[in-house]
Design brief:
The protein is an alpha/beta fold. It is built from 14 helices and 16 strands.
Length: 404
């Protein structure tokens, strides 16, 4: 089979590796619009279990990813002038540049052609191949050619965010919440190498404009943020993310969904198919799992339409709980003032519960007490697990009806 993967991110590169391992006779090309060694972003996160899954599909790249990752096991939150710690939140970080390098090197070693500075312009015909994989991100040009067929929908969140780097190496997943005269602003940081960490800063649009960040140049904006987060940064600098215009950008996160994931021999993969809010740290994991599912479907089905239908069915089902968790997580941050009156340790505990569909409908102090009780009593824990989604759904429907 001749396969063209349009986009050289984790999804396309890992798919090319898996397909070559299935059948070395496959003719596979990965087309990446950026130059070799060029990538956006800093570090990416993943959580326990992913490396084990990757080992089951390609041990060599899994070992390299594990060896180049850093690990943390605590969560730390700075809230006003207080600090609280939660133990046991094991996670991993790896530089996006390093991850792509590992996957590209592995793909080439298996006979995949990786062609840099070779994008597909908007409106251009896709490459000639038996299978064309659109793994060119949230702004996929291949998907947009047939947006009506795919049923593409993008919903922008209310908050503003910016993805930065720092020379402060966090040894725990670190949150910092700062109250300003214009409202709350917060960051979360995590290490991904011995020299650098990622630092994502978020706030409401009102706080963003109130602090003047909407009109500040990059240097001035970073100076404002360094002052606000001086304590968790421990005097270290923030570093902007390079774009074509040389500046870091404030954005609204867009949650993207598609009703269909394939059309004839064109299939969507990774962010071209779906996005989940960055606050759950699942984007890279989901992209790699997409690749595993697509390779598995292609290996199991004789006919391409059957394989693509199987892939879409499996991944749409697997994504439902993740997308729900991401939606509630984004809403937790969009409604942050609802929780800032709690003692820091209780606020941090509810930060860990932000994926719950019940939390938005129950007063935060009461939810905290009920959750602590459920931890001690097995029957309450089971009741919460069984009834929680149904109660939340009923409350959500009632809320929508009252607004209508």
């Amino acid at each position: 089979m001749k396969v063209a993967c349009v986009g050289g991110g984790p999804a396309g590169l890992y798919l090319s590796i898996l397909l070559k391992r299935q059948d070395p006779s496959h003719d596979i090309t990965v087309l990446e619009r950026n130059p070799a060694g060029s990538t956006y972003g800093w570090g990416v996160t993943y959580w326990g279990g992913l490396i084990d899954k990757l080992h089951g599909h390609d041990p060599e790249s899994a070992r390299a990813i594990g060896e180049n990752s850093v690990c943390w096991s605590d969560g730390v939150a700075h809230i006003r002038d207080r600090t609280t710690v939660h133990h046991g939140d094991e996670g991993f970080g790896i530089g996006r540049h390093r991850l792509l390098g590992i996957l590209a090197e592995r793909a080439v070693s298996l006979g995949v052609r990786v062609e840099f500075e070779h994008g597909i312009p908007a409106g251009a015909e896709p490459p000639a191949a038996d299978l064309v994989v659109a793994c060119d991100g949230v702004n996929s040009t291949l998907r947009e050619r047939h947006a009506d067929h795919f049923g593409t929908r993008a919903v922008a969140g209310r908050n503003m965010y910016i993805w930065l780097g720092t020379t402060k190496v966090f040894d725990a997943f670190t949150f910092a919440f700062v109250e300003t005269e214009h409202g709350w602003i917060w960051c979360y940081g995590y290490g991904f190498s011995a020299e650098h960490s990622t630092c994502v800063v978020e706030c409401s649009a009102e706080t963003w404009t109130g602090l003047g960040l909407h009109e500040a140049n990059e240097a001035d904006g970073l100076a404002v943020l360094e002052k606000l987060f001086a304590e968790p940064l421990d005097g270290h600098a923030l570093i902007g993310r390079a774009h074509e215009d040389g500046s870091a950008r404030w954005l609204n996160f867009r949650t993207l969904t598609n009703r269909r994931w394939y059309r004839d021999n064109l299939v969507l993969l990774g962010d071209a198919a779906h996005t989940t809010h960055y606050s759950i740290g699942a984007g890279t994991t989901l992209a790699l799992e997409d690749a595993i599912a697509l390779a598995g479907a292609l290996g199991a089905e004789r006919e391409l339409p059957s394989a693509l239908a199987r892939y879409e069915r499996e991944r749409r089902s697997a994504l439902l709980p993740v997308q729900s968790a991401a939606r509630y997580s984004a809403q937790w941050y969009e409604n942050l003032p609802r929780y800032t009156g709690l003692p820091p340790e209780r606020m941090f505990a509810l930060l860990g519960q932000r994926h719950s569909p019940l939390l938005p409908h129950i007063p935060p102090g009461l939810y905290y007490r009920l959750d602590r009780a459920a931890e001690r009593l097995d029957f309450l824990r089971g009741l919460k697990r069984r009834l929680g989604p149904r109660v939340a759904s009923a409350l959500h429907a009632r809320s929508r009806a009252s607004r209508g």
